[in-house]
Amino acid sequence: MTEIFKNLIAGERVGGSNASRNINPSNTNDVVGEYAQGSVEDLNNAVAAAKAAFPAWSRTTPQERYEILKKASDEILARKEELGRLLSREEGKTLPEGIGEATRAGQIFAFFAGECLRLAGEAIPSIRPGVGVEVTREPVGIIGMITPWNFPIAIPGWKIAPALAYGNCVVIKPADLVPGSAWALVDIIQRAGLPKGVLNLVMGRGSVVGQALLEHKDVHAISFTGSVSTGRKVAAACIASNPMKKVQLEMGGKNPLVVLDDADLKLAVETAVNGAFFSTGQRCTASSRLIVTDGIHDRFVEAAVERMKGLVVDDALKAGTHIGPVVDQSQLDQDLKYLAIAKDEGAKLAWGGEVLSRESPGFYMQPALFTEATNAMRISREEVFGPVASVIRAKNYEEALAIANDTEFGLAAGICTTSLKHATHFKRNSEAGMVMVNLPTAGVDYHVPFGGRKGSSYGPREQGAYAREFYTTVKTAYTLA
C-alpha cells in the first residue's frame, strides 16, 4: 500500500477521512504521494492544540525560539537539493528554481531566528510627572494560514517563520494541489524541537478546512495568499467573525514592464522573458504587460521572439529545461482560454501558445507573446497566471507610465532604461508596492518587505522586519514611580 502522509495535530500524525494523490505535472503517471484530507473535526482539534500550547510558547525566551528556528534553517539548507527536487516534482518549476526556492525557505528561517533576538520596545517619558511609559510587542495568538500552490515551500516558510519567531501558534492549510513541500517543511520545524501544538498542519479542501479555519472563534488572525476572488471572501469572513480576526492578504498582479527607447535591448529582452515566462509564468509578480515605446518596439518584439524560440519546455527535473509544465489541467485550460480571448479581442499572437507533447505525459505549453494589444483588453486587465504576456505600444515615457498605472492591481512594476531621470521618476510615480529598474519584476530578497497596493494586497507587508506588524500586537503600559 502507498504511504499516506498524515496531518500534524498536537505533535502527532493524524490521518484524515481520506487521501488525495499528489500528481507530478511533468509526468502524470508519477504519483508523488498520497496526502491526508483533513476534516472540520481535524481542523477544530488543531486549533484546540494551538490554543493549549499558546500560553507556554508565547512566554518562551527569545533564545529558545532562536535555537528552534535556526535548527530548522540548518536542516532546510542541508537538504535543499532533496527539498527542491520534491518541490519541482509536485509543482512543475524547473529543478534549479525548486532548489532556489528551498534555499530561500532556509534563509527565511535563519533571518527570523535572528529576529527573535532583535524584537525591541520603547521606553517613553509621560507628559505626567513621575509616570513611565513602555511600548512593547506581544504575539497575536493563533494564526491561521492558507497558502497557494505556486510557491509551496517559500510562502509557507515566510508565514510560519515570523509567526513562530514572535511567539504565535500556527494552524496552516497548504494548497491541496501541492501538499508535499509544506508537509516536509512542517516536519523539519517540528523535529527542530517545537513543543507539541505550536505548529499544526491540516491538509484538505479549501471549502472544508479553509472555511472552518476562517470561521473558528479561537483563531485570532488569518494570513492568506491566493486569488483576488478568494481573498475578498477571506477578508469578509474575518470581519464577520466574532471576534473579528486580523487579516493579511496577498493576491494577484497584472504587472507592467516598461521598455523605453534608450534601453539596452539585450538586457530588456532578458528581463522581460525572465519576468514573464520563467516559473511557467505562474507568479503573482510575473511581467504580463510589456509596455514598449515606439522607437524600440519592433526591435524588441523581434528579439523577444528569437529569445523565446530558444527556450526549452520540458520535464522540470531534466537538465537544460528552461520552463516546466503548467501545474495542472485546470490551469492549462485557463491559459488556453485567455489565448482565445486575446485573439478574439484583436491581439496578434507573435509566437507560441501551442500545447506540446513530451516524452512523458504532462501539461506542457509554449510561452505565448501577443502584440498589438491595448490596455483595455481582458488579456491586459485580468491575471492569466501562466506563460502568457502581451506587448502594448506606447508613444513615450509619459504614456507608458500612465498605461502601467492603469490597472486594478499594484504588486510589482519594472522599467528598462539607461536614463537616470526616467528611472528615478518611475520609482517615485509607479503605483506598485515593489519597483524594479533593469531587473525582472519577479524576484524579491527574503529580508525586505513583500506586498503591493490596490487589489494586490491588503493589510501589513510580509517578509523582513516589517512582518512584525502583522504577527505582533502593540501594548502600551504605564507605571507610576
Describe the structure.
The chain has 481 residues and is an alpha/beta fold. The protein has 2 domains: 4-251 and 456-480, Aldehyde Dehydrogenase, Chain A, domain 1, CATH 3.40.605; 255-437, Aldehyde Dehydrogenase, Chain A, domain 2 (3-Layer(aba) Sandwich), CATH 3.40.309.10. The protein has helices at 40-57, 62-78, 80-91, 95-118, 154-165, 179-191, 206-215, 228-240, 265-277, 294-309, 329-345, 378-381, 397-405, 420-429, 468-471, and strands at 4-5, 7-9, 12-14, 18-24, 27-37, 122-125, 131-139, 142-146, 169-173, 199-201, 221-225, 246-250, 255-259, 287-293, 348-351, 355-356, 364-365, 368-373, 388-394, 409-410, 412-416, 434-437, 453-454, 457-458, 472-480. Strand 2 and strand 3 (12-14) form a beta hairpin. The protein is globular, with a radius of gyration of 23 Å.
Topology:
Blueprint: E1 4-5, E2 7-9, E3 12-14, E4 18-24, E5 27-37, H1 40-57, H2 62-78, H3 80-91, H4 95-118, E6 122-125, E7 131-139, E8 142-146, H5 154-165, E9 169-173, H6 179-191, E10 199-201, H7 206-215, E11 221-225, H8 228-240, E12 246-250, E13 255-259, H9 265-277, E14 287-293, H10 294-309, H11 329-345, E15 348-351, E16 355-356, E17 364-365, E18 368-373, H12 378-381, E19 388-394, H13 397-405, E20 409-410, E21 412-416, H14 420-429, E22 434-437, E23 453-454, E24 457-458, H15 468-471, E25 472-480
Parallel strand pairs: 1-5, 8-9, 8-11, 9-10, 11-12, 13-14, 13-21, 14-19, 18-19, 21-22
Antiparallel strand pairs: 2-3, 4-5, 6-7, 7-25, 12-24, 15-18, 16-17, 20-23
